[in-house]
Amino acid sequence: MKGSVLTAAALVGGGVLAHFLLDDPGYVAISAGRFLFETTVPVFAVLLAGLYFVTRAILGSLNARHRLAALRAERRRRRARDDTQRGLLDLAAGRWRKAEELLTRAAPEADSPAANYVVAARAADLQDAVGRRDAWLARAQEVAPTERAAALVTLAEMQMRRGQDTAALQTLEQLDASGDLNSRGLELTARLCHKLGRGDQLRALGPRLRSAGDLPESQVNELLAQVQLEEVRAAGDRKDIAALNEAWAEVPRATRKHPQAITAYARALMSAGDQVAAEKALREAIEDEMEPYAVRLYGELALPDPLAPLERAEGWLRKRPEDPDLLATCSRLALRAELIGKSRSYLEASLARKPTPENSLLYAELLEQLGEGDRARGVLRDSVARSVGRRPSLPRIRIRRR
Predict the structure, then answer these.
(1) What sign for the dihedral angle of Cα 48, 49, 54, 58?
(2) Pick the residue with more confidence: 213 or 265?
(3) Does the N-terminal or the C-terminal CB of the chain have fewer CB atoms within 10 Å?
(4) What's residue 347's pLDDT?
């Protein structure tokens, strides 16, 4: 429409100009070096108009090609976005092979190719395709070297899912050595150190965990509590009561109320030789909540007067006579007090309510010392059968006599 208007205007203007210049068309001369161009004003005006329209046509053609190329690129990006969305939905729905295909096909035109490759690696890992997983992660690092942390942290998470904790820690240590360990990687490193029993390494992470800004406060507190409890355990192993109590005082108040933290503190006290303080900590935990961890550990106390903890445990037992953990604890305490008959009765009652391999082994040892070897072996066979889930079906063996 705009071009038609301009053309009509040019024709009208040319007609008006021709009317005034009909008697005297004028003269135009253009000289460039040896070149001389001569013409009349109307012809020159027509040439200028023609040059204008030709130039517009050429520019329009070039713009059309650019627009066509842009439209094709936008179509490819839109298809890549659609494939990425479908791939994510397929991953969530458990269609891992399809998700991997869609994500990797869309990656070259995706808004974030590295993200596509990282998610595709997760889909490959869910198919147990470790080779393809590592290839996609390597590709993610190639297309986005600055996002190396995302690829290696994802690899560590997948290794942890497979139970490869040592390999996962090595992956994170490699990332840390390059200075690219992010907050998520720091959190995983702390959890792995705690799980693998690397107390010194876990304690060294304490200042970095405190300064981490991307982790939620609850997670930071949990991880710091692990660090501080590891310091409690280490002080107990060194038999350093002062350092042990100092480390326990630094544990957050909310964490000190957690049953597992209390049992860790009590066990450290027992390792350091302070059985009285350990008994007090466990007794308070048991009286507050009757936590099984604390109940079982209470049976391992070795106080100078073995009857005192037994009397307390029997007091709790009168309120909870069917508690198998409490029965087992009373059995251990009675055994330490050399009340063999009472210990045996408590242990048999505990096994009748909840047989466990540990208590079965304790009962078999007790029977062996009492001279009941056959029964002790029967108890062990029953315990093994329960752990396996069934007894082996063997044909009856007949012994031939000569």
Answers:
(1) positive
(2) 265
(3) C
(4) 87
pLDDT tens readout for residues 182-228: 888 988 998 898 888 887 788 788 788 878 777 787 777 777 778 88
Q: Among 119, 54, 58, which residue's Cα sits nearest to residue 84?
A: 119
Please report which confidence band the pLDDT of residue 380 belongs to, taking 50, 70 and 90 as the band edges: confident
Compute the distance between CA of residue 210 and CA of residue 239 in angstroms, rounded to an integer.
Answer: 28
Main-chain phi, psi angles of 30, to 5 degrees:
-125, 120
> CA 43, CA 31: separation in Å to the nearest integer?
17
The angle subtended at Cα 198 by Cα 194 and Cα 199, nearest 5°, is 80
Residue 30 pairs in a beta bridge with 37
Taking the CB of residue 178, how many other CB atoms lie within 10 A of it? 10
Other C-beta atoms lying within 10 Å of the C-beta of residue 223: 24
Whole-angstrom Cα distance, residue 150 to residue 3?
54
Q: Is the pTM of this model over 0.85?
A: no
Question: In the predicted model, what is the mean pLDDT of the chain?
Answer: 83
3-state SS track over the chain: CHHHHHHHHHHHHHHHHHHHHCCCCCCEEEEECCEEEEECHHHHHHHHHHHHHHHHHHHHHHHHHHHHHHHHHHHHHHHHHHHHHHHHHHHHHCCHHHHHHHHHHHHHHCCCHHHHHHHHHHHHHHCCCHHHHHHHHHHHHHHCHHHHHHHHHHHHHHHHHCCCHHHHHHHHHHHHHCCCCCHHHHHHHHHHHHHHCCHHHHHHCHHHHHHCCCCCHHHHHHHHHHHHHHHHHHHHHCCCHHHHHHHHHHCCHHHHCCHHHHHHHHHHHHHHCCHHHHHHHHHHHHHHHCCHHHHHHHCCCCCCCCHHHHHHHHHHHHHCCCCHHHHHHHHHHHHHCCCHHHHHHHHHHHHHHCCCHHHHHHHHHHHHHCCCHHHHHHHHHHHHHHHHCCCCCCCCCCCCCC
pLDDT for the residue numbered 171 = 92
Distance in angstroms (rounded) separating the CA atoms of residues 259 and 296: 12
Per-residue model confidence as pLDDT tens digits over 57-90: 777 776 767 776 666 667 877 887 888 889 889 8
